[in-house]
Amino acid sequence: MKNIFNQKVVLSFLLLFSLTLTTSLAQTEDVVIVDSDFSNKGGLIASLPINVALIETKMSNNLAQTFKQALAENPNVKNIHLFAPSTDASINLDGQPYNAETIAKQFHPTDFQTHNPITVFVYSCSLAKNALGISLLETISSRTGFNVASCASCDDLKDELMFDYSVRPLTATSNLFE
């Protein structure tokens, strides 16, 4: 009996190890960046599909460094989903506001060269509704080469979001939760 028990334990361990290794080596096309101050961060993280890479922001990294981290850790990424508090003219990451001027200074186009077309989905109900917010989204796009999409028709992030604004036409919309 003892020998059978040990074999079962070893087999269970090997199965768990191989599943963990397979999951960690699997490349994902979706990366979620979530700010530490994002409302309902815990609920968002709990509802993410298992194959989505997650980056929680840190005070030591700015937005450009966080995007570079997403690319470095996920070379096959196609969609970056940014969940951060925003105003009409800025995205706030760890208490630091990023407006079009800040993005233009911190983002260097050579840092974001990739062979994959990438879309950044900015989960905000305010940026795409006004000229300053649209300028910010366009600046992110021009400094990274990525398409940038956001929602102009929502009133609250609890609504079902439709990415009805994008700098360039969207070839496909990405719904993280389907």
Give a written overview of the molecule.
The protein has 178 residues and is an alpha/beta fold. It has one domain: Rossmann fold (3-Layer(aba) Sandwich). 35% of the residues lie in helices and 17% in strands. The protein has five helices and eight strands. The protein has helices at residues 2-25, 41-47, 63-73, 100-106, 131-144, and strands at 30-34, 53-56, 79-83, 91-93, 96-98, 119-122, 147-150, 165-166. The strands form two sheets. A six-stranded mixed β-sheet has the order 2-1-3-6-7-8, covered by helices on one side. A two-stranded antiparallel sheet has the order 4-5. Helix 2 (41-47) links the parallel strand 1 and strand 2. Helix 4 (100-106) packs parallel to helix 5. 29% of the residues are buried. Mean pLDDT is 85; it is low at 13-26.
In short, what is this structure?
The chain has 178 residues and is α/β, with parallel strands linked by helices.
Features:
alpha/beta, Rossmann fold, 35% helix, signal, globular, 178 residues, DUF4347 domain-containing protein, 6-stranded mixed β-sheet, two-stranded antiparallel sheet
Question: How is this fold's topology laid out?
Answer:
Elements (H helix, E strand, L loop, with lengths): L1 H24 L4 E5 L6 H7 L5 E4 L6 H11 L5 E5 L7 E3 L2 E3 L1 H7 L12 E4 L8 H14 L2 E4 L14 E2 L12
Parallel strand pairs: 1-2, 1-3, 3-6, 6-7
Antiparallel strand pairs: 4-5, 7-8
Helix pairs in contact: 4-5
Pfam families: DUF4347 (PF14252)
Protein name: DUF4347 domain-containing protein
InterPro entries: DUF4347 (IPR025592)
